[in-house]
Specification:
Elements: E1 2-7, H1 13-25, E2 29-34, H2 44-51, H3 67-74, E3 77-83, H4 85-93, H5 99-105, E4 111-115, H6 119-123, H7 125-136, E5 140-141, E6 145-148, E7 154-158, H8 162-172, E8 174-175, E9 184-185, E10 201-206, E11 211-212, E12 218-219, H9 226-237, E13 241-246, E14 260-264, H10 268-278, E15 284-287, E16 294-296, E17 317-319, H11 323-334, E18 340-347, H12 355-366, E19 370-375, E20 386-393, H13 395-401, E21 407-412, H14 413-430
Parallel strand pairs: 1-2, 1-3, 3-4, 4-5, 10-13, 10-15, 13-14, 15-18, 18-19
Antiparallel strand pairs: 6-7, 8-9, 11-12, 16-17, 19-20, 20-21
Helix pairs in contact: 1-2, 1-8, 3-5, 4-7, 9-14
Length: about 425
């Protein structure tokens, strides 16, 4: 989705940098259009670095491409955050005295305005009337949050947190069921066409686990959880009801999104318990979490201290349960549970072994239907915005899908998630 992100002159503009980062992480193309006064709060260099696009503020910049019209015409969605009281008044009046207001007048895309101002300004009769008129014209004006404002005062008028704005933006994007990467439309699809996962329940695990060693330390890994969260949003966008079981994540969790419920866990044992409870009632299980293979055999009730003799403690490890293999075994033994189980493999490879071969061996060992291979390492995949995955199907799934070669997908984690859920939905449909 192509988004025009307007930024007006409020101190909350710093939050919009976080919002921009979230939008980019999920594959949206973003043109930032700040007002000239807003650059006193956050400068041009920040917006250009985060968006990867040139940033201008006036109608006489980029005249050769008629920038003040083109930006509005090409946008799929216009978001203004923060939207000051002055900006709301300008838009109500139809003013076009800078690049942002001109672009908005030239745009027929949906518009989301996110107010931020002091309580007295928000409650002023002039502002209230401006908001009412804008809503009557079809613009969406979010309600401001209540909390600490600039200075010592608190009240309603605080800009909502970037995660909440992002969740609302995601609701504008309805999937076009062609499954093209990031295919989307801002208009509801044909009501006669059912989303491919409508009525289905999908359980997705995300993030890493922490295995406690003592009250202070733990064993963990570098997983950010971004891929698992992207999978949850992709499944929800295809009509599924999603249960996201999240371990330790750096990603923004979709807790404000109606079709996704979030359960938090920390250890591999807690994850196993959550999967055992959720999997039997699901149609699909996607094990995207980076589960620790080992945990300390003994937990120290007090912090392990350094000793004066310089000796290092010996930490004995024991294996964690193989949650993916157990889920497959329970399903196959009972005939109940998810019709499709998707596993993930994070492989570094070595001089003797190719990551793709290791992933194919893992697929055979685990017995799942699909396996997603990530080649990981320092600066690869974990915590990154972009990724490269290979989708590998079991022999039976290959026959059902009519494909025999692993599918390679490169791009954002949102694009990879769309590809994974596309293949999952196709296999689910093939199995009835």
């Amino acid at each position: 989705m192509r988004i025009l992100l307007g930024v007006t002159a409020g101190i909350a503009a710093y939050k919009s940098a976080v919002l921009l980062r979230l939008l980019k992480e999920f594959g949206h193309e973003v043109d930032v259009v700040p007002t000239p006064a807003s650059l006193k709060f956050v400068g041009t260099a920040t917006w250009e670095a985060l968006s990867g696009r040139p940033v201008t503020t006036g109608v006489f910049e980029g005249v050769d491409e008629v920038r003040h019209v083109r930006l509005g015409q090409e946008a799929d969605l216009v978001v203004v955050a923060p939207a000051t009281a002055d900006f709301l008044a300008k838009i109500r009046a139809g003013r076009a005295d800078d690049l942002l207001t001109s672009s908005i007048l030239a745009s027929e895309a949906p518009k989301l305005l996110v107010p931020a101002m002091h309580t007295e300004m928000w409650q002023n009769l002039a502002t209230a009337e401006n908001v009412q008129v804008l809503r009557e014209r079809g613009l969406e004006v979010m309600e401001p949050a209540e909390g600490r404002l600039t200075g010592k005062d608190s009240g309603r008028g605080r800009m909502p947190e970037p995660e909440h704005i992002f969740a609302r933006i995601q609701q504008f994007e309805q999937p076009a069921y062609s499954y093209a990467p990031l295919a989307g439309t801002l208009f509801a699809p044909d009501p006669e066409v059912q989303p491919p996962m409508a009525g289905r329940t999908v359980v997705i695990t995300a993030g890493g686990t922490r295995e406690p060693l003592d009250p202070v330390r733990y064993l963990g890994n570098r997983s950010s959880g971004r891929q698992g969260v992207a999978l949850a949003r992709a499944a929800a966008g295809m009509g599924a009801t999603v249960r996201l079981i999240a371990g330790v994540v750096d990603a923004v969790l979709p807790e404000a999104e109606a079709s996704i419920t979030v359960e938090r866990i920390e250890t591999a044992e807690q994850l196993r318990d959550a999967v055992v409870r959720a999997a039997p009632e699901s149609d699909v299980l996607v094990m995207a979490a980076a589960v620790a293979d080992f945990r300390p055999a003994a937990y120290a009730q007090t912090k392990i201290k350094k000793t004066d003799d310089g000796a290092s403690p010996v930490i004995e490890l024991e294996r964690n349960p193989d949650i993916l293999a157990e889920a497959v075994q329970r399903r196959d033994a009972s005939g109940d549970g998810p019709a499709v189980i998707v596993g993930f493999a994070a492989e570094t490879g070595s001089e003797e072994s190719d990551p793709l071969q290791l992933a194919q061996q893992k697929l055979a060992r685990k017995g799942c239907d699909l396996l997603v291979l990530n080649r990981v390492g320092e600066g690869l995949v974990f915590g990154q915005e972009d990724t490269e995955v290979h989708l590998i199907a079991s022999e039976e799934a290959e026959r059902a899908l009519g494909a025999s070669e692993p599918q390679r997908v490169t791009g954002t984690k949102h694009q990879a998630a769309q590809a994974v859920m596309k293949q999952t939905a196709a296999l689910l449909a093939a199995r009835g």
